[in-house]
Amino acid sequence: MSSFRTISPTDTTSAVFHSYLLGVVAPRPIAFASTVDSQGKVNLSPFSFFNVFGSNPPILIFSPSRRVRDNTIKHTLENVQEVKEVVINIVNYAMVQQMSLASCEYEKGVNEFIKAGFSEEPSILVKPPRVKEAPAAFECRVNQIIATGTEGGAGNLVICEILLAHIQEDIINAKNQIDPQKLDAVARMGNDWYCRAYGDAIFSVPKPNQKKGIGFDNIPAQIRYSTVLTGNDLGMLGNIEALPTKEEISEFTSQSAIQEIVTNKHNSLAVKEALHQIAKAYLLEGKVKEAWLTLLQEGK
Ligand SMILES: Cc1cc2nc3c(=O)[nH]c(=O)nc-3n(C[C@H](O)[C@H](O)[C@H](O)COP(=O)(O)O)c2cc1C
Q1: Atom of ligand 1 nearest to the CA of 77
Q2: d(CA 74, ligand 1 centre) in Å
């Protein structure tokens, strides 16, 4: 069993708490924000305090925080206070090193498109340009800026309403969905760590939506307290809408090699273990019904 470190933010330096927070609230997507100041000077900086918070109206929020180090504020915050517009560009793996370069603390007025080697593509509805290399970009109006404090480390929530989206055609699949493998997104973790959503790192979990799973509490105890099945296995089992019927269970027995295992009445523990292992293999293939039919052969 794990032991826990219990930490109060008031008993810890903000630098340490900041580091723990950013380490565990991870991975975080990255808003690569392009803004302009009142003189039209362009700025481009990454922010991983970022997410989508609604789709109608479509809302993105990111936070240029006060520096923990010296409580100074970021040029991006000053810019959105001066000109209430921003383009939020999405960062993929091909852009990650240049994006990191753009996060250097250059003097105000320095254009990080130039410093980091990105191409400025004029926006249609807002003044800040978008990053041509980005797989997606959102032209936004800044509706509100909410400061969450005045000390170093405090956030400034920049609430952005999307006016126009630009999405690279080749990341949209035949079903008109975004193909995550083609997006090849990167996200920020603690310290210098990043992660790449690509290859085996991407997997699917069918979402229940309107379906209502039976829940853990309706999983029979001999299955729920299995020494073979994990929390993920039980989560899949609990997501079924109804247990198979007696007829389905009997039919499954006659069809499968399971018959042989179940007839080994001398060793009920071995039967249980064997059935749970088979069920686990079905779950690995996403065959939840078959897993249930296997598990319910015990004590039938
Ligand atoms: C991937 C990444 C994510 C970052 N996320 C944030 C963030 O969410 N909030 C923040 O204040 N700074 C964040 N930073 C640091 C800013 O990008 C950095 O302070 C930058 O110099 C700010 O630029 P500006 O002063 O031109 O706005 C991040 C840096 C990187 C590389």
Answers
A1: 27
A2: 8
Report all structural domains of the chain as residue ranges with CATH numbers, in order of start: 9-201 (2.30.110.10), 216-295 (no CATH)
For residues 172 and 49, give the distance between their C-alpha atoms in angstroms, rounded to a whole number. 26
**Alpha carbon distance 87, 67 (integer Å):** 23
* Residue reference for tokens 């240029």: 64
Please give the number of the atom of ligand 1 that sits closest to the Cα of 99: 31
Q: In whole angstroms, what is the distance from residue 266 CA to residue 133 CA?
A: 66
Residue type, 291: A
**One digit per residue, pLDDT tens: the chain, 300 residues?**
799 999 999 999 999 999 999 999 999 999 999 999 999 999 999 999 999 999 999 999 999 999 999 999 999 999 999 999 999 999 999 999 999 999 999 999 999 999 999 999 999 999 999 999 999 999 999 999 999 999 999 999 999 999 999 999 999 999 999 999 999 999 999 999 999 999 999 999 988 778 899 999 999 999 999 999 999 999 999 999 999 999 999 899 777 677 778 776 677 888 899 999 999 999 999 999 999 999 999 876
Dist. CA 55 → ligand 1 center (Å): 25
